[in-house]
Structure formats: structure tokens, C-alpha cells
Amino acid sequence: MYGADWIKYYSDGCVRFDADGRLHSRVIFTDEEARAIVDESHRLGKKVAAHAIGSDGIAAALRAGADTIEHGDGLTDELMDEVVRKGMYWVPTSP
Q1: What CA–CA distances, in Å, run from 85 to 8, 21, 22, 65?
Q2: What are the φ and ψ backbone dihedral angles of 47, each rounded to 5 degrees?
Q3: Second label for 76, Cα 20 to 30 Å away, from 15, 22, 46, 68?
């Protein structure tokens, strides 16, 4: 009713460490659904924050074109390189 400056969506949930030592997560939306959230928000002139803790959710948010990664505990060097390459921001949280 009063408008919003940012749209935040949950890219992932159910975070866990796997045998590979990486922090993984269950992705909430398909790539098409997440891209629709981002595209529609951008069409309305709004930025998109992706709640993404595990590496899977972070990768999904990167594919969707979100503007920020919120939390990002599962960032790997490769994912961080992609964040930088796309000009995104990482908004970390402390334990």
C-alpha cells in the first residue's frame, strides 16, 4: 500500500553441509520463477535482494539476476567471482 524500495525473496532454505565440505541448500523457486520475480521487480524500478545462505541458493540468485545476496554463508571463491563480475553486492550476516 505504501510502496517498497526493495523486494526480498527467499532463494533457498534447508541449509546443510555435504560430504564435499560445501554449504548446500534447497532452492525454493525454479530458475524461470526466480527470473520472473527479478524481471518484474526491475520493470517496476525496484531492486531485488535474494535471501541465499547455501551455495545452491546463491547460484540460483546469480542466475536470476538479483541485485544483492543476503547472508551468503555458502559463498565459494567461484560464486564470489561471479558476484563481483555481475556487480552485485553481498550483505553478510554474522553468527
Answers
A1: 22, 25, 22, 12
A2: -85, 160
A3: 46
